[in-house]
Amino acid sequence: MHVIGTVGLPGSGKGEAATVAREAGIPVVTMGDVVRQETADRGLDPAKDHGTVAQALREENGPAAIAERSLPMIEDRLEDHDSVLVDGLRSGVEVDAFEERFGADFTLVSIEAPFDLRAERIDARGRDASEDDGGEGLESRDERERGFGMDDAMARADVVVENTETLEAFHDRIRTIIRDGEQQMQNS
């Protein structure tokens, strides 16, 4: 069993890492999907209200609420797979929840990129409502994410990936991390 968690500010490349995992046949649990589902369940707009609902979940159910909601999803996928990638940890408290549950079988990967590059990527993907359309700007999103404790989570990473090169170079680096994790699993 191997659980790989990714942490990184918006636009750093977490979604691309998840794509690489899926292409390698590794199931992905996206913590943001937990929030998107809750946002929809509350009758709100996931493109505009994601951050508000993420904050509300943590206030209502504690700082590890989203991690705790994702644990059964991860364990379900581990029944049929050796590895799972968890996309989008946000805090040291969430890291604690995964380390407590999976111990040495958990690897945290921090994906990092400069602000300007992340801003370009977010504009290019067109998934999020812009500030002009009632969405949240990148500076505000970064501030909110850091408020959850993301800097602490990033500082605790087992592996740091600087995602500033080509997409293919980034994909290669993620494939290597996945392969290394699978080899560690076979050797233990």
Report the β-strand fraction as a percent range: 5-15%
Low-confidence stretches: none
The number of helical elements comes to 9
Amino-to-carboxy terminus distance: 10 Å
Protein structure class: alpha/beta
Spell out the blueprint of helices and strands.
Elements: E1 2-7, H1 14-23, E2 28-30, H2 31-41, H3 46-61, H4 65-78, E3 83-89, H5 92-102, E4 106-112, H6 115-125, H7 138-148, H8 150-155, E5 159-162, H9 167-187
Parallel strand pairs: 1-3, 1-4, 2-3, 4-5
Helix pairs in contact: 1-9, 2-3, 4-5
Describe the protein's architecture and organization:
By secondary structure, the protein is of the alpha/beta class. The protein is built from 9 helices and 5 strands, in the order βαβαααβαβαααβα. A 5-stranded parallel beta sheet has the order 2-3-1-4-5, with helices on both faces. α2 crosses α3 (46-61) and α4 (65-78) runs parallel beside α5 (92-102).
Structure summary:
The chain is α/β, with parallel strands linked by helices and 188 residues long.
List keywords for this structure.
188 residues, alpha/beta, 5-stranded parallel beta sheet, 9 helices
